[in-house]
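Please, structure for the following, as tokens.
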Amino acid sequence: MKEPLRSLGVFGILGVNSSFFYGIFSNPNALTEVLKNPISLAFIIEAIVLMIVFTYLLSKWGVIRLKPSWFILLSLLGNLVFALPEVILWSKKS
């Protein structure tokens, strides 16, 4: 069970985030343009709402034993593809 979750976490932090950072560093004005676009802003707000809902549900269902703030912090540092497997792995006893 650990290997698929660990692989998903590595893909989330390296695969998804590296494409984001490549776009930001290759075109520094891209982030300001994205924040001006109402459609992309709607997707950003949706991701934040989903992060909050996932945090609530994971805590309520007892899937994670860490504080909910860890899931939010990892989601903001990486993304949901990274944060979800990591908090599940951290919650499991070795």
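Helices lie at 2-26, 30-36, 38-61, 68-77, 80-91. Residues 2-91 form one domain.
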